[in-house]
Amino acid sequence: MQPQALKHLHDDATRVMVVDGSRLVRKLIADVLQRDLPGVQVVGCASIEEARQALADGPVNLVTTSLSLPDGDGLALAKTVRESAGQAYVPVIVVSGDAQSHLEQRRFTDYVTDYFDKSLGHEALAAFIRGYVQPAIIPGATLLYVEDSRVVAEATKRMLERQQLNVLHVMTAEEAVTLLTAESLGRNQHRIDLVLTDVTLKGELSGRDLVERVRVDFGYGKRRLPVLVMTGDGNPLNQTALLQAGANDLVLKPIEERLLVTKVLFQLRLSRLNPRSVV
């Protein structure tokens, strides 16, 4: 079975807009993208004004922007993209050296899709962008998925399995801890590559408790075992607490397949850039 294409993100003439005040940075990103995404058209812009002109010339599939631009910031550019005709659903990624702070303080706006930490490098950025415009399967990847609603679990599993991901579903955090313990002892048939958990669960342990167990009790760092937490809680303080507890990222409910798949595949690719032993 072939993975289902996310049709509203991928076509034969993918256009990615890269907005950065540095010509060198724009070229580096463009070179990596054109190498990894054959046929991609990279539209380089040095400012918000240049981006406006480029948007007037035709639609784009994705926008990356630095946080600081000569005539404004990435947040202002994101608003400009959203207000441009036909650009309402285009992912806008802010590339920042302070991305973790933005994540933890939940400085998202309605216009920004996600933040990317520029310290991870251009190769990782290209993988991140590819996740949006051309999701690629991760052969043999196994997700430990914790969700106490069977209805929600079945729907989410289908989203993930369409990308040929192996999903181990359990209903409680306690069951997840048992499987992680078995893996740490070499008793699991499948190596767990990523944990995806709801924050509110039946049982004594919550999703946040599970994150803390992964980071503290098992000693797994964010690159060794990524953890994504699904939450419908819009309170920025509660979201920050989940990230500070050790979650790599959040997936906000209601679940949108495009973003869930992108975040999962990106964290898997990022984790595999380094050996499994890396903390």
UniProtKB/TrEMBL annotation:
SMART domains: REC. The modification 4-aspartylphosphate is found at residue 198. It comes from the Bacteria. Keywords: Kinase, Phosphoprotein, Transferase. Residues 15-133, 142-268 form the Response regulatory domain. GO terms for biological process: phosphorelay signal transduction system. The keyword Transmembrane helix does not apply. This is Histidine kinase. One of its GO terms (molecular function) is kinase activity. The lineage of its organism: Bacteria, Pseudomonadati, Pseudomonadota, Gammaproteobacteria, Lysobacterales.
